[in-house]
Every structure is written in C-alpha cells, then in structure tokens.
Design brief:
- The chain is an alpha/beta fold and about 140 residues long.
- The protein contains 7 helices and 7 strands.
- It has helices at about 5, 20-30, 50-60, 65-70, 75-80, 95-100, 120-130, and strands at about 10, 15, 35-40, 45-50, 85-90, 105-110, 115-120.
- The longest helix is centred in the N-terminal third of the chain and has 11 residues, at about 20-30.
- The two termini are about 25 Å apart.
C-alpha cells in the first residue's frame, strides 16, 4: 500500500501550532467538528495531537472556562505528546494497519519528523477494498 497515494496531504489537513492558545484550539476543533488535531512546531515538525479530552482536562484542572483564561496557556502545554503517535512515510502496510487499529487517524511524518499528512481508517479500508473515495476539496473532512 502506497501511503503517499492514500494520505490527506498536510496542506489539506487541519493542524494547530504548539504556540496556539487553548482558546484558538477549542475554536478550531469546534469549527471543524474534530475530536483530535495534529500539533506542529514552528518548523512544521509533528509534536503530537491534542484531543477533546486534553481540553476537558485543562478546564477541570483550571476550574474556569472563560476566554481570558484560555488565552494564558498554549496547546503545546496541555497536549499529551504520546497520544496518536506518527509513522514514517516509508512504513509498511502492516505498520500502517497496526497504527490505525490503535487510533482514528495516523499522522505520517518524513525522516525529519515533519508532518506529511494523515491517513484515516476509512482511507485504509477503501484502499484494501479497492474502492475510490471522492477527491478532497479544500480541507480534509472525515464525515
């Protein structure tokens, strides 16, 4: 299976910068309806993913949810770096499937650790079944 052929490229993937505020992260997640989003450093290297549980944990621990308080911490400070680990663009089909069994989408990185894109379970199933998914217009949407 050619990972580059089936993945959604980085340019069409919704990502957050590690320096984005918690408020910005919440707004992006709400706008797109995702439960997890890749987080990148300023050079485009993959750091991990932030998910709705990370934001919930932040709100519970802080004891407040006001917009001003959400501006004080960054996404990079609240995310768990071990959540949704990436695989290499050169990974085998078995490695991709194993990763997809553990997480809803698999971040794909190059040898420098820069995000190349993501592969969803839906994409893997379609590829294995020999079915084509409709082309992605604009940003990625896994509906």
């Amino acid at each position: 299976m050619n990972i580059a052929k089936i993945m959604v490229p980085k340019a069409l993937t919704v990502c957050l910068n590690a320096g984005s505020t918690v408020r910005q992260g919440v707004e992006v997640m709400r706008r797109h309806g995702y439960t997890a989003i890749p987080v990148l450093d300023a050079d485009g290297r993959f750091l991990g993913c932030v998910n709705d549980r990370d934001f919930l944990r932040y709100f519970v621990l802080q004891g407040h949810t006001g917009p001003r308080e959400q501006e004080r911490q960054t996404v990079g400070e609240i995310m768990r770096r071990d959540f949704c680990p990436p695989i290499s663009i050169t990974a085998t089909e078995d490695e991709l499937i194993d990763a997809a069994l553990q997480q809803n989408f698999v971040p794909i990185v190059d040898d420098r650790g820069a995000l190349c894109g993501i592969v969803t379970r839906r994409m893997i199933i379609a590829e294995l079944a020999g079915r084509e998914l409709p082309p992605v217009d604009g940003e990625f949407s896994e509906e």
